[in-house]
Amino acid sequence: MAEAYARGGRYGKALAAFGAVGALAVGVAAPAGASEAGPGTGGERYVALGDSYTSAPGVPEQTGGDCARSSVNYPSLNAKWLHTRTFKDVSCSGATTDDMWRTQGANPPQLNALDKRTTLVTLGIGGNDIGFGDIIGTCAQLSATDPAGAPCRTKYTEGGKDQLTDRIAAAAPKVARVLKDVHKRAPHARVVIVGYPTIMPDNGVGCFPAVPIAAGDVGYLRDTEKHLNTMLKQQAAKAGVRYADTYGPTVGHDVCVPAADRWVEGASPENPAAPFHPNAKGEEAMARAVSGVAKKR
After folding, report:
1. Spatial contact of 217 and 151, defined as CB atoms under 8 Å apart
2. Which residue from 147, 152, 109 is spatially nearest to 132, judged by alpha carbons?
3. At 79, is the secondary structure helix, strand, or coil?
4. Angle at 195 between CA 209 and CA 266, to 5 degrees
5. DSSP SS3 for 26
6. How far apart are CA 32 and CA 28, in angstroms?
7. Residues labelled catalytic
8. Signal peptide span per the entry (predicted)?
């Protein structure tokens, strides 16, 4: 969602609207391959797949080269809490469902990390398939034209059809295909699809111009994210896997609350994180939500 890092380790053009280009585009010395922990005291063999909401760009300490993984992202925290036997984090900023099967920069196809010994898989994907980064950038640019209105909603519903609803529907079979292959490669694993946390205020009241989203578009983007999460939950149910709700537990910690209470940063992060992405507190909250689902046998 709203990827801060495009392929190649640079910001997507959508976020240029916030003047954020280069703010987090720092060189990372760590190799771009999987972050892998050695044997622990538990028996869990855990593989984490996903996009930047999983990898946590900008959150210290950064690993994974252009994939911008954090050492305290929700997979790393869960691996620590579960005392995993083995742990591979192959999440990568900018990932779409297609990147489960193809090389993304120096990151191998994410599904290659799975095997028949894998016992736990978490998957956070879908936001980039609907182009949420470009959507946020477009909405930010349009907000200046009508800050009290809903210029972004008007654009995406022109002609009486919601383009974003269509994009979410088109992403559903892609997520289903990923889950099918996860089952094939890791037939004995518990699988958890991870939803996206609260970004826009759940009450629909924005904070323009601090977060440059027009008043009427705050609720529209909130509902779009909820629709995306609903699709992910539905695909989890159809595939017989688990769904971790990270939206509910993060309500009240959105982009508009004071920095001390914020778990997802806005256009100009005040805590280390990429724009419109979880900070360390947000990743911890996501980890708690995922852990509660993953531990169930």
Report:
1. yes
2. 152
3. helix
4. 15
5. coil
6. 9
7. 52, 277
8. 1-34
